[in-house]
Amino acid sequence: MSIIEAELEPQHLPLAIRVRLAGPRDIDDLADLLDGGENAREQVLTWLETPGTTLLVAQSEMGVLAVAVLVTRLVPLEGVGVHKIIEVDNLVVRADQRGRRIGRRLLAAAVEWSRQRRAVQVEAVVGEGAAKRFYENFGFAVANDRLVLAA
Known about the structure:
Layout: H1 3-12, E1 18-21, H2 27-34, H3 37-49, E2 53-60, E3 63-77, E4 81-93, H4 102-116, E5 121-124, H5 130-138, E6 141-143, E7 146-150
Parallel strand pairs: 4-5
Antiparallel strand pairs: 1-2, 2-3, 3-4, 5-7, 6-7
C-alpha cells in the first residue's frame, strides 16, 4: 500500500453516524453548520422553539455533521378529515463531509421518522440543480412546485 492510499482510505470508509433529535445543547454546532454568526444562532433558536418543527442531526465522533429541519403540516381533505405532511424545510451537511452519503442517510432517517408519525408524504421545495437531483435520486418526484415522496 502506498502512502497516498493510506491517507485516502479513511475518507472512503463509512462513518459511524447516529441520527437523533436536536436540542438546546446543539445550538452552537448548528449555527456553525449554517454559517456561524448571530443570524444563524437566532434561526436555530426559532426552529427549536417553533411547534411543529423538528430538527434531526447526524452525529459522529467528529460532532454534528448535518441537520434536517422538518416541518409538520396538517392538510384538510374534503370529507376525509386531515392528513399529515412532513416538509424537509432545510437539509445541510457540513462542507468538509459532503459526498460521503451523510445527507442521504439523514434523509432516510427523516423519511422513517415521518412514517412513524403516520405522515402520508414527505415534501421538499428546492430549485434546480444539485439539491433537486439529490431528492430525485432518493425517489422524490416532481408534483407542482415541490418534490414529493410517499411516506
